């Protein structure tokens, strides 16, 4: 515990002097999603204005590099390739998925789907993209051929989707507070984890492969051992439903946000509070940056 206490104090002291925030106006309408590239050098934002903005990080300043246009509806969620820092995928209400390449600064693939898309995730091995729509249909796309591999219709409210770090299990959170775990690519049910008494909204895997975290309408964030599927600890500092969570690049810190006007940052191994960052908006999307600014947050 002593080594943890020293590390906790180190992080707390860091945030006392590194807790400034700055707003950047990049869209003409509400921002729905943000995400850092795997090398931490670019930030992408998707908006109701149908565009995707790419920013580069110059020390502590963001500079707009590209504005991608092409979607016919709002860009509801985006995700970067987990090992290729130039590739980005977006899910839109226009019933399509687009893949963008910052090197050529354009869309390199458009995949038409059956419904209005609200969730998207890219497998850690880079081979597959999964997108969920408003009718709880999840479509699996081969990221190399841009062809649809499979579709799976679920008969419950699907909130967020994700692969584990080895890309052989697929996780879905639902409206009954559960996490459904499927084998991949077989899509056979392996387990249903009763994670929360309220709606399970979001899920995130830590980069070390040891834990995953879930956020819920009960205002709780739960940390789970990925092998035992056992809850290790619960973060209880929020008052409103937890909408988004994010691990730091080294897995030591966990950020969570809700309609509370703060982002809570906790120490993963003990649950201790490291810092809270005040924000202006009630609906916040938080993503911890990696490598370049290990404690940088995008709001």
TrEMBL record:
Pfam families: Beta-prop_THOC3. One of its GO terms (cellular component) is THO complex part of transcription export complex. It comes from the Eukaryota. One of its GO terms (biological process) is mRNA export from nucleus. This is THO complex subunit 3. InterPro entries: Tex1/THOC3, WD40/YVTN_repeat-like_dom_sf, WD40_PAC1, WD40_repeat_CS, WD40_repeat_dom_sf, WD40_rpt. WD repeats lie at residues 24-65, 68-110, 193-234. Keywords: Repeat, WD repeat. Belongs to the THOC3 family. The lineage of its organism: Eukaryota, Metazoa, Ecdysozoa, Arthropoda, Hexapoda.
